[in-house]
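pinned: reference chain
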Amino acid sequence: MAEMFQILAPDGTVNKPELVPAFDKIEAMYRQMVRTRYLDDRFMVLAKKNQMGTYAQFGGQEASQVGSVMALQPGDYIAPMYRSTGACIAYGWDLHLVIMYWRGHPEGWRIPPHLNMLPIIIDIAAQFPHAAGVAMGLKMAGKKNVVMSWIGEGGTSQGDFHAGVNWAAATESPAIFVIENNGWAISVPRAVQSKADFLMRRAEGYGIPGYLVDGNDLLAVHHIASKAAEHARAGNGASLIEQITYRMRPHTTGDDPKAYRTDAETQDWIDNRDPIDRIRKFLILEKQWDAEREVALKTEVEKEFAEALEKADTYTKPDPAALLEYAMVNPAPHLIEQQQVLADRIRMVK
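pinned: its structure tokens
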């Protein structure tokens, strides 16, 4: 039986005090967790009001995403999937662009030049070969940077999962592959996905380090992600991390989780294992946080969201032709044909 790495117990008490980082670092990560939770909930509201497209929520996985991505350094890359919005925001993705991306606005598809972020992948597991390729490129260029990518436990059943991890392992490329085991692959429970007790055991087959982490323990997530990043920067290649967490929200804004899981199960995680509550309890116990600062933080986040939404709302409406503009660098014949059909239909409407 593998032992799950943990620094903070659910009640906020410390198991491994020697591994607790500086409080300014912890506070910075906590702020991002509160920020991303608020934004995740607001995006859900926008989607329900038809002011945004179908959106994949990550509520409950804030420690998993924030704790890992904040182990990265300038020059590192991320290869996100559709549930990695929290990690992307914590990594520096402009908030108004996040809203525009999920609205399908072409300006939201463009990655800002200051951000080493690949486009969000909807095709499950395709982000892992992308991450492996970028990691190999960094190695060939002699750079000491790393690539981090996330996947749900359901995605580990896809062939691209194996292809990406195996390639990075075989080439000793600096990639960090994170499995966010949130219990459910849409409506399929983890127990049906694999006979293995823990998915991190697959690391042995690739010949790389594998870690099992309490994904709702911010400090544990950050510690192991930092360890994997250090391993990669030293030229030792890839790592595979499994973070045990839980999707407290629906699979997407178009999903009804009551059809496949009980309210009691979800409520237990909310009441007893919420990652934000855990780190907040720790900070309060250490006299590093209080109610006044909490109110100030929420006011700050609310203001940020309101300003970003206003900016997104006032953006120029896109040219319909932009729908196919960024599909390929060198358009294939069928894409050129589709562009012509679209152009003809636009002229007919005008």
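why pinned: The first strand starts at residue 77 and ends at 79. The mean pLDDT is 95.
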